[in-house]
């Protein structure tokens, strides 16, 4: 491999996408009340982060129209001043930072209590006393009330035409593609044996490298179908019977210019839109829209079940 003509950077990105985990419980019971009219905005929507996560963030701060394409400038304000919990329209709780008894938290009937999660449910346990406490979920799942991710958008020519956008493909930079350098296979596996693979959880490592002249290697094709990732732009671990077969594929790419270039041909057929509204933008839009009031019997168990995590994905693959 060291004698190959062209340099290649392979980046193994961990995509969490589980398929089968057996649970002894089901917690999908969600009480939903009738539709409510959208809020008549007479004052900014006030969002309280009831967590230590933002204690060092200048408070308060406004959600600006320039950073959100789904809410108007000045329509929401975010802070972590717990003394204003009674005035807040929405209160966000991060389970890893709940170091208090939720039963002591005051609330009024119009507030939205949000269960916000950045990581897979295998990373933390359920907080105590969360039964019938939360009204909304905010996480990476497409099924969340307020979904967020590091997602960008790829559009082919037909899709761009439907949105009346000029088609400007990403294209291939031949100099970057064939720049001579030491061959490197960077496997960001680390503690993968202890890392669960969960549905819809796409690491930021993929999104941060998605437009580079590199070949991402993702765990599961099942996740990619939900993310809109262009076909043939990545390699999927589960497509190979064993790690040996995967390494042989990488070696073949290192030794074959034609095979390597073929992995980048998709760039001539897709354009890239860096659209990823922040969770605050999506949260503001959700509260402003005032969806039907709901109450989760146990929001953690619902999140756990919908994530459908698989702990032993890597062990099973390496055992082949």
What order do the helices and strands come in, and which of them pair?
Elements: E1 9-12, E2 15-16, E3 30-32, E4 45-49, E5 61-63, E6 76-79, E7 90-93, E8 112-116, E9 136-139, E10 146-147, E11 153-155, H1 157-162, H2 174-177, E12 184-187, E13 201-202, H3 204-209, E14 215-218, H4 221-227, E15 235-236, H5 243-255, H6 257-262, E16 271-273, H7 279-289, E17 294-296, H8 299-307, H9 313-318
Parallel strand pairs: 1-12, 1-14, 4-6, 4-7, 7-8, 8-9, 9-10, 14-15
Antiparallel strand pairs: 2-13, 3-17, 5-6, 11-16
Transmembrane segments: 6-25
Membrane topology: Single-pass type II membrane protein
Main location: Golgi
Core attributes:
four-stranded parallel β-sheet; 2 domains; alpha/beta; 320 residues
Description of the molecule:
With 320 residues, the protein is an alpha/beta fold. The protein has two domains: 9-16 and 150-273, no CATH class; 30-148 and 278-309, no CATH class. The chain has nine helices and 17 strands. Strand 14, helix 4 (221-227) and strand 15 form a beta-alpha-beta unit. The protein is globular and about 65 Å long. The chain starts with 8 loop residues before the first strand and ends with a helix. The chain crosses the membrane at residues 6-25. It is found in: Golgi apparatus, Golgi stack membrane. Pathway: Protein modification; protein glycosylation.
